[in-house]
Amino acid sequence: MVASAANDRWLSEIELPTIFAMMKDHGVAEILYKILPRNANSKNQVYLAPDMAQLGKLPSGEVTVHQSTSRKKGGVDGVFRAPIELYWLTSTGRAALAPDAKLIFYPQFPEVRFSGFLRGCTDAPSSLYVKERRGEEPDRVLFFGVGNGRKIFGITVPPEAPAATQIRGHRPQEPYGVMFIVPLQIVATGDGYLELMRALCRIHRKEWVVSTRLDRHGVFVPCNASNCNGNTLEALLGIRSNGFSQPDFLGWEVKARGVNNSERPGTNVITLFTPEPTSGFYVTDGVEAFVRRYGYPDTKGRAGRFNFGGRYLSDRSAHARTGLRLVIEGFDPIKKIYAPSGAIRMLDGNDREAMGWSFVKLMDHWKTKHARAVFVPSEQSNRLERRYRFGSKVILGMGAEFRLLLDAFAGGSVYYDPGIKIETDVSGRTTTKRRSQFRVSSKDLGALYVESRVVDACEEARS
What CA–CA distance (Å, rounded) separates 38 from 435? Predict the structure, then answer.
């Protein structure tokens, strides 16, 4: 049901502080906005980014593949869809769910569009998106409120609204793709990048710090594993340990990279992400059966232990111990285009799939956290207790695109480096460890982003 223009009239009178107050009432931490062009409406959809990976601030559900008839080229193309939990705010401040709202990624163009945002919601700002009404007017402003879990709160105002005039007068704000960011007071004042640099500079100046992490209650607890540098860095930034896959700090994914000297970090290997396989013998028959078929006895002679390890690069010969090789299906490295049905697969000598990762699942992992990332050098000391020292010279990566990740796979700079094992104790009880990690050398990070550079956090904090 389409709401009448009269129901949307209040949006012509709303002030920007009122929008901020309504967003805060719903737990919003940050606002993204876009000044809409003429073609942004319910028929044409709303363009948001050239790639899903650049919309990490918009929490979304599982990415799925669908067949779609192309409006621009004709014929049938595969597209990626990700549902979002969108609520339109009403004149009373109530939040009305738009149950069909989603992000649609068209890799053939490429572009991500906001779609389905009116369907099934009687309180949506319909008159501002229907072409026959005001859906082709320029300078309407779309606001997204984020930071309350997976919920996104939306308001759209017409060009004559005081809020539209006020937000245009506040520019330039920090850009976020084709949108802009307005941080609210409950998170931070000022620029998110500057706040990040200040925080990393403060951590650098602490020198050696004890290995720790924040639990889900915000309490510092010891971290005793050998790879606690990331946990310690997150704890010092106030980031709690949780399973919610969103950027860590004001829209930035923060990753520690272990180095021998934090003052002169040099080159090292970085783990990008650790997605579990989605197909192949590993999935159908389980981890233990997989390791017993393709793994090998522990090279250090530890009894009862079988490993599956090695370094797997695209289109290289099979690994000597496991007999598996890595191939990429559905990606054209010349044209830099890919099929939604594509996958990265590990094949044995008979071309049987031992394990695989569909593009749709890899995109699901990649899109959430890698739009903007900072890689911080960390040096470890084990004298008396585990401690870390974090350097100020950090690597920034901005504008992650999935095609760049696939291109890096095809070129061999991103590779599969698993650490999977099964151990059987003297009583015959077997335990398994799963760790499917994709890694890259720090010198090759720039290939994964539209823009990448090395900066000194303390110098940036002073600028």
Answer: 48
Cα separation of 226 and 386, whole Å? 9
Distance CA 334, CA 386 (A): 47
Dihedral angle at the C-alpha atoms of 264, 265, 267, 271, nearest 10 degrees? 180
Reported pTM: 0.78
C-alpha dihedral over 357, 359, 364, 369, to 10 degrees?
A: 90
| Residues 137 and 144: beta-carbon distance below 8 Å | no
Short-list 340, 336, 366, CA closest to 81 = 340
Q: pLDDT by residue (tens digit) across 60-116? A: 988 898 876 555 554 446 889 999 999 999 998 899 999 999 999 998 888 999 999
**Are 394 and 442 in contact, with CB atoms under 8 Å apart?**
no
The residue among 398 and 325 whose pLDDT is bigger is 325
> What is the DSSP annotation of 359-411?
HHHHHHHHHHH-SEEEEEEEEEE-SSS-EEEE-SEEEEEEEE-HHHHHHHHHH
Nearest-angstrom CA–CA distance, 233 and 371:
20
Instruction: Report, in angstroms and rounded to the nearest whole number, the Rg of the chain calculated over CA atoms.
Output: 24
Specify the CATH architecture of the domain 5-183. Answer: Beta Barrel (2.40)
* CATH (residue range 192-462): 3.30.70.3570
Distance separating alpha carbons of residues 186 and 329, to the nearest angstrom: 46
CA distance 8 to 6: 5
Q: Which residues of 353-369 are buried (b: 16+ CB within 10 A; e: fewer)?
A: bbbbbbbbbbbbbbbbb
Nearest Cα to Cα of residue 21 among 141, 181, 173, 143 = 143
Mean pLDDT (whole number) for 236-260: 74
The closest of 341, 428, 438 to 80, measured between CA atoms, is 341
Type of residue found at 26: H
Segments making up each domain of the chain, as ranges: 5-183, 192-462
Pairing of strands 102-106, 212-214: unpaired
CB 37 within 8 A of CB 138: yes
Q: Which residues contact 439 (CB under 8 A, 6 or more apart)?
A: 269, 270, 271, 272, 414, 415, 416, 417
Residue 376 pLDDT exceeds 70: yes
